Amino acid sequence: MRRTMLFLPGNTPNMLINGDTLGADTIIFDLEDAVSPDEKDAARILVRNALKYQSFPACEVVVRINPTDTEFWKEDLKAIIPLKPDVIMPTKVSGGEMIRQVADYITEVEKEAGVEEGAVKILPLIETALGVEKAFDIASADKRVIGLFLGGEDFTADMHCKRTKEGKEIFYARTRLVCAARACGIEAYDTPFTDVEDMEGLEKDTEFAKSLGFAGKAVISPRHVDIVNAVFSPTESEIEYAHDVMEAIEEGKRQGKGVISLRGKMIDAPIVKRARQVLEMEEAIYGGACR
Ligand SMILES: CC(C)(COP(=O)(O)OP(=O)(O)OC[C@H]1O[C@@H](n2cnc3c(N)ncnc32)[C@H](O)[C@@H]1OP(=O)(O)O)[C@@H](O)C(=O)NCCC(=O)NCCSC(=O)C[C@@](O)(CC(=O)O)C(=O)O
Ligand SMILES: [Mg+2]
Predict the structure, then answer these.
(1) Considering only CA atoms, which residue is closest to atom 37 of ligand 1?
(2) Directed axis angle between helix 73-80 and helix 40-53, to 10°?
(3) Which residue from 31, 107, 143, 253 lies 20 to 30 Å from 13 (Cα-Cα)?
(4) Which domain of life is it from (predicted)?
């Protein structure tokens, strides 16, 4: 479950220290664009030390590395992989070949460090026009890939258009990513909403992302965590309905009925599938698996 994915700039020790206490399902230690080129080495050391000396029992840990056309990405992986983060996020991903290059290098470092091979997963950040067009190629490039992540700011810069709060300019990229991810049986995660003060705008943007099929959303501020968590959690009435669906199915079986109805509507396989998804979320959020 990755409802919220909180970015923490790798060069800010106070943010790294408190990262897992802020309610996000996932934290992303950033070595890329939140860190200026002359701070790359310092950020890498800080993130490595955070992974080495702190534990993060309450959330998943992702490390965002620098793009493969820079001098930094191999150094990033060499320093980080031995500390076994859950996930590596390669950036400006433009095709499956780039994912295989990163996956091969992760394997090399895992072997050198004696880390279980394949333990570290990959969450590609797609944020260019070419990357969006190659979304399926990227999603299916390697078994380590666990999802696709959309970067709306760099994407719109590459598209030569303005990034707006309404988000019309990223609609195609959003739906393309969700479809490519789901076609590979994995999830898509939405770009952050970058106005830290606008909670109404954040909620609207998050509701819209959820309605398109995204499973979660990046956030840049702890102030955004509660709203995004709430939007990506099932509501009380959704949970109640899901329980009713499962009870109706069981009752139908007992009575030997092939077709059943609930609240005047036919219950068929997709409705049962959705009910199971809601109950899995309920278990993960309220059943002890989640804070
Ligand atoms: C936005 C702002 C400067 C606002 O600062 P402010 O100081 O006004 O915030 P306040 O709310 O006043 O802070 C109150 C307290 O919370 C603490 N606090 C704040 N943020 C925290 C946080 N993230 N984690 C933990 N703690 C935090 C703070 O330290 C303070 O603690 P304390 O002093 O103890 O009271 C700050 O949030 C921040 O730096 N965010 C992260 C930015 C970042 O990572 N960007 C890169 C990743 S996105 C990206 O790259 C997108 C993309 O890749 C994809 C695409 O394409 O879309 C692209 O290409 O663009
Ligand atoms: Mg970016």
Answers:
(1) 221
(2) 20
(3) 107
(4) Bacteria
Residue 287's contacts (CB-CB under 8 Å, 6 or more residues apart) are: none
Residues 241, 227, single domain; the answer is: no
pTM summary value: 0.94
- The enclosing domain of 205 has a CATH number of 3.20.20.60
The answer, yes or no, to whether any atom of ligand 1 lies below 6 A from the CB of 202, is: no
Determine if ligand 1 sits within 6 Å of the CB of residue 191: yes
Cα of 22 from ligand 1 centre, angstroms = 12
Co-location of 133 and 258 in the same domain? no
What is the count of structural domains for the chain? Answer: 2
What residue numbers bound the domain in which 214 lies? Answer: 4-232
Question: Is residue 255 domain-shared with residue 146, that is, in the same domain?
Answer: no
Q: Could you report the per-residue pLDDT of 37-92, keeping only the tens digit for each?
A: 999 999 999 999 999 999 898 899 999 999 999 999 999 999 999 999 999 999 99
pLDDT tens readout for residues 224-275? 999 999 999 999 999 999 999 999 999 888 988 877 899 899 998 899 999 9
CA-to-CA separations, 27 to 70, 140, 202, in angstroms, rounded: 24, 24, 19
